[in-house]
Amino acid sequence: MQQRYTLTAIVFHWLIAVLIIGAFTMGLVMTDIPGLTPTKLKYYSWHKWAGVTILALATLRLLWRLTHPAPAYPNSMPAWQKTAANSLHSFLYVLMFAVPVSGYFYTLSAGIPVVYFGLFQLPVLIDANPALKPVLKGLHFWLNMGLAGCVALHVAAALKHQFIDRDGELKRMLP
Amino acid sequence: MKLTTGALTATLLAVAIAASAMPLKTDPAKSSVAAVFKQMNVPVEAKFKKFTAQIDYDAAKPDAAKANVEIETASLDVGDPDMNKEVAKKEWFNSAQFPKATFVSSAIKAAGPGKLTVTGKLTIKGKASDVSFPLAVKTDAGKQVFEGALPIKRLAYSIGEGDWKDTSMVADEVVIKFHVTAGQ
Question: Could you tell me the domains of chain B?
Fold first, then answer.
């Protein structure tokens, strides 16, 4: 019997996965809407709320992960694959923080604070900064492209383990 | 020759008299007019880049004061060039048809030290209404500094038509905040 991730870790994983895919898709859709429409403004707000939620969940998830080690990889996995998997997981963790943080500072540099769910304003850590705004916009975009690349590799590797290696690795993360 | 000198003196005198009765000169670098509103509860402060403020004010006779402000509606800077273009469109300011928003005072009354109550006509997007608001005045480096805030309801002036009437997207309450520095 293969050891699995804890139920908490599994919930964190899938919840964050859904939120990341949602926020990412919304980011692409909303920036594609021409002009100014209420829908566009709504998507921007939702996108920011999703990002902040991901950041909060990622923080809790990291604390959980640091105190609850991941189950071992299948014995059949070569050492280089274990190293590659560990590196990719590290990248995913870094980007889980870097992407929402870059977006948060991007909107602050534009002079627009985040009002979470329209209820309370989150800290304004920097002043509006027109010079910084395009830099953060680019950074947010490219970090997202990096995240998309890492997620694609992550999914491809999981599918390879499931359907080619058939080593039960994916079961560790299934509910 | 003597006649010419006399005429010149008279002209200069006339100019000097006219100057003392002229309105204060606004210092654009130390003046600003901004619209403060909430977009999905997010506070936004946007400045009008182009406006003129003519204020005729004598601290000794505050009740004789007059104010005339003209704001170029297309100059509202919401922080993004593309968005600025949107704001000038028909649904918002319709700047092509109504390039200027104006305020003309009808009465200014002293309301305590350094305080005035200003009444007048505010016209935005072709819709005029009578408004009254408090104005603070102080002297800074020999110039008069006027500071005030005028709360309005944007829908009363049809600012934001169609889908934009939805006040859950952009609140109806908008505060026009201004700070005008003017001197002789």
Answer: 23-183 (2.40.128.110)
- A65 close to A96: Cβ distance less than 8 angstroms: no
Q: Which of B39, B42, B92, B168 to mutate to test the interface with A (most CBs of A within 10 A)?
A: B42
The amino acid at A111:
G
Shortest CA distance to B43 belongs to which of B179, B181, B177?
B177
Q: Global pTM?
A: 0.85
- Which residues does A contribute to its contact with B (CB < 8 Å)? 35-38, 41-42, 45, 110-115, 118-119, 121, 128, 130
pLDDT of residue B183: 87
What amino acid is encoded at A169 in this protein?
E
d(Cα B131, Cα B152) in Å, to the nearest integer?
9
Residue A2 has pLDDT above 70, yes or no: no
Q: If 0-12 CB within 10 Å is exposed, 13-18 middle and 19+ buried, where does residue A51 land?
A: buried
pLDDT band at B144 (very low <50, low <70, confident <90, very high): very high
User: Using one digit for the tens of pLDDT, what is the confidence trace for B37-75?
Assistant: 999 999 999 999 999 999 999 888 888 999 999 999 999
Summarize the confidence of residues B7-28 as an average pLDDT: 62
Fold of A7-173: Fumarate Reductase Cytochrome B subunit (1.20.950)
As a whole number of angstroms, the distance between CA B34 and CA B22 comes to 26
Q: How far is A4 from chain B (nearest CA, A)?
A: 43
Helical axes A7-32 vs A38-67, angle rounded to 10°? 160
Quote the pLDDT of residue B5. 62
3 state DSSP class of A18: helix
Pairwise CB contact (< 8 Å): B42 & A112: yes
